[in-house]
Design brief:
With 292 residues, the protein is an alpha+beta fold. The protein has helices at residues 2-16, 72-86, 137-140, 143-156, 208-224; strands at residues 24-25, 38-50, 54-65, 89-92, 98-106, 111-112, 119-120, 123-129, 161-164, 175-187, 192-204, 227-231, 242-252, 264-273. The strands form two sheets. Strands 1, 2, 3, 4, 5, 6, 7 and 8 form an eight-stranded mixed β-sheet that branches. A six-stranded mixed β-sheet has the order 9-10-11-14-13-12. Strand 4 and strand 5 (98-106) form a beta hairpin.
Length: 292
């Protein structure tokens, strides 16, 4: 998998910066001297897997510029171009597997390569590779999740893909992922419980303006949406019944990582009847007409 990711990245970098003339290289061997403007791609540390984002790995991309070609100014220009061309960009390798690149910052200051005399800078990107769970969890389903997905699909149209719980291995863009972040219950009177669920929405597109517009649109529409229809599927006595959950506490953060953290925070709530308590039946009643 790592070989396919690196190969795909090298091909992408060669297209992004034609000045390198295809010179996108692995880390040079000891004593090897780099020639001409180029870039070096190396894998760094692995990051713990995410339940919804999958396998994560850090990769460093280092552009090299000759002093006569502009040196620091050229490195700065290439770095900006790489960030724009890779940050939150979905790539597909030759095996058809998708992964996303997230810019994480520069790992060190500009420096001069001792062997070639070229100036360079290391840019850190997170590579996120979703992994299919291989289980049929989606067949069980969640009625509240299904309601969110159906509503989102109706709002955005058929050109969008709407996912639940995890990013699938062959995810498409533009897309929205809804996942459950937490839940709680509280007593609401003697015969009812209030169930609250916190959801996170990830809006992923290949254009920052479209992403921002979609996030704000969904947050606004959810804020004015008083409730969502939920079709219950638990048990024969409830099969096909339609109930409603109330939409509450909608917020959006346009600065967060769309793929990993998600931009929309949402609370759904519903009151349900508390199950009855078994009590002993009254076997006999003694009654007297007179009172003293």
């Amino acid at each position: 998998m790592s070989k396919l990711i690196k190969k795909t990245l090298k091909q992408k970098l060669a297209v992004l910066v034609p000045d390198w003339d295809g010179r996108v290289l692995d880390a040079p061997a000891s004593g090897e001297v780099l020639a001409g403007p180029c870039a070096v791609v190396v894998f760094a540390e692995e990051v713990p897997k995410s339940a919804w984002a999958g396998y994560r790995r850090i990769i460093k991309i280092s552009p090299y510029a000759r002093p006569e070609d502009g040196g620091a100014e050229q490195v700065e220009a290439w770095s900006a171009h790489l960030i724009e061309g890779l940050h939150q960009v979905r790539l597909v390798d030759e095996a058809g597997e998708a992964f996303t690149c997230i810019y994480l910052g520069s790992s060190d200051s500009d420096r001069v390569d001792a062997g070639s005399g070229m100036l360079t800078r290391s840019l850190r990107f997170g590579v996120y590779v979703p992994e299919d769970s291989g289980t049929a969890v989606t067949e069980i389903g969640d009625a509240w999740l299904a309601a969110l997905q159906d509503w989102t699909q109706q709002e955005l149209g058929s050109n969008w893909s709407v996912y639940g719980d995890v990013w699938p291995g062959g995810y498409e863009m533009p897309s929205v992922l809804w996942r459950l972040a937490g839940c709680s219950t509280s007593v609401a009177g003697t015969s009812a419980l209030e169930v609250r669920q916190q959801w996170i929405g990830h809006v992923l597109t290949d254009h920052s303006v479209l992403t921002r517009q979609t996030v704000t649109w969904l947050a606004r529409q959810l804020a004015v949406q008083s409730r969502l229809a939920v079709t219950e599927t638990g048990g024969e006595e409830h099969e096909g019944n339609t109930r409603y959950v109330t939409v509450d506490e909608v917020t959006a953060d346009l600065q967060t990582d769309a793929y990993l953290n998600g931009q929309i925070r949402l609370t759904l709530q519903q009151r349900i009847r508390r199950p009855g308590t078994n009590v002993p039946l009254i076997r006999e009643i003694h009654h007297s007409k007179g009172m003293e």
